[in-house]
Design goal:
This protein is an all-alpha fold. The chain folds into 2 domains: 1-62; 64-128. It is 91% helix and 0% strand. The chain contains 4 helices and no strands. Helix 2 runs antiparallel to helix 3. The N and C termini lie far apart (53 Å).
Length: 128
Amino acid sequence: MDMVKIGLIGIVGVLFAVSVKSYKAEYGIYIAVAVCLIILEYIVRYFINILTGMEQIRGYLNENYQFLALLLKAVGATYACEFCAGICKDAGYGGVAGQVEMLGKLYILSVGMPVLLALMENIQALAG
């Protein structure tokens, strides 16, 4: 049901922003940002549920939970970059949006590097 609600909020917000944009362009951007913030509030709710589940998984992992923290950082960075890039695109700054997306990709690559290195060490240890 929340997905229907979020979809309707998005559609109504965009239609309202488009209709106001012809009157004054910056008001359309303000409305789009407000709609994004409302949807972000729903995202945070679901993210809190995910964090609760991750805490349970962390209990099963004993002391090897650093990779789980890296996964959460990567997911958080993805959401933050997509949110910022979407707002930049709506405002008409596609170049800035592209740079934000590139930064997000590089950040995720750098966060995932310790996982890749640990995997390579394990493969090397198994190979002898």
